[in-house]
Specification:
Length: 271
């Protein structure tokens, strides 16, 4: 059951467990906590909560329904770490909303979801192929940032020149959106930039895998050679002559390369 707790004369914290905020609390709520049991914020859930300043949204919240936060004029910053889908008019007329931070799971933002959010300037988004974002989100945007996981991935690329190239492309969006390219909407400019980033990242990830696989092959050969060199230093023993091919095969099996590669390769590969 939804419930509110008054923390002082000016603040009312509301724990949301589903449905709509009771009418008698809409004018009072200042902070909302989404309960761990909630994965969907329902239609009109927080509509017309003018004093609502913050929403503590956990990673299990995946869908925000139509008009869920419409006309919540006190909201300034939103952190939506697990949200996949935002429906039409979800944040319509949140006139003071300034920044929205999405997580890596974002898949779709419907058109008109952020209509009337005239102060929205900064967004953080992932790079997911096929991700669809409605144009109203970009209308007044000045800066676009990538989620932390993407930035870490770029920093871990094998060659520094690859990382620099990706960082240059990542920063290019700020030049393109402020001011926006003549004759193009911000939506088309940002979508083009995202497509370029995804293409470039896929290219460098593929190149990275080739380099890593080549390095693993060289490592295996080096370990195998070391084991063979070690066998040549062993004292001669009186025993039946053994085929050299069998010895080489045995050394390859016992050189430890398979253990090292099994444990090292996953660390070097990119997700």
């Amino acid at each position: 059951m939804n419930h509110a707790g008054v923390t002082n004369h000016d603040s009312v914290v509301f724990v949301y467990t589903g449905g709509r905020v009771p009418e008698h609390l809409r004018e009072r709520i200042t902070h909302a906590i989404i309960d761990k049991s909630v994965s969907v914020i329902d239609e009109y859930a927080f509509q017309d909560c003018p004093k609502l300043q913050s929403v503590a949204c956990h990673k299990g919240v995946e869908i925000i329904r139509k008009c869920a936060f419409m006309s919540c004029n006190g909201l300034r910053v939103l952190n939506l770490p697990g949200v996949k889908h935002i429906e039409t008019w979800a944040f319509k007329k949140c006139r003071r909303l300034f920044q929205v931070i999405f997580g890596e799971k974002l898949e779709r933002i419907e058109r008109m979801s952020f209509t009337g959010c005239r102060m929205l300037r900064h967004i953080t988004i992932p790079l997911n192929e096929g991700m669809a974002i409605g144009g109203s989100l970009y209308l007044n945007i000045e800066s676009v940032w990538l989620v932390e996981g993407i930035r870490k991935l770029i920093a871990s690329l094998h060659f520094e020149r690859w990382t620099r190239r990706m960082e240059m492309e990542m920063n290019e969006i700020h030049r393109r959106t402020v001011p926006c390219a003549r004759g193009k909407s911000k939506t088309s400019v940002i979508n083009e930039w995202m497509s370029s980033m995804i293409h470039l990242l896929k290219h460098f990830k593929a190149e990275h895998c080739i380099v890593v696989n080549e390095a693993m092959t060289l490592l295996e050969l080096a370990l195998w050679k070391a084991k063979l060199d070690e066998s040549h230093k062993e004292p001669k023993r009186k025993r039946a002559k053994i085929d050299s091919g069998i010895i080489r095969k045995e050394r390859r099996v016992t050189c430890g390369a398979d253990i090292i590669i099994k444990n090292v390769l996953p660390v070097l590969q990119l997700d």
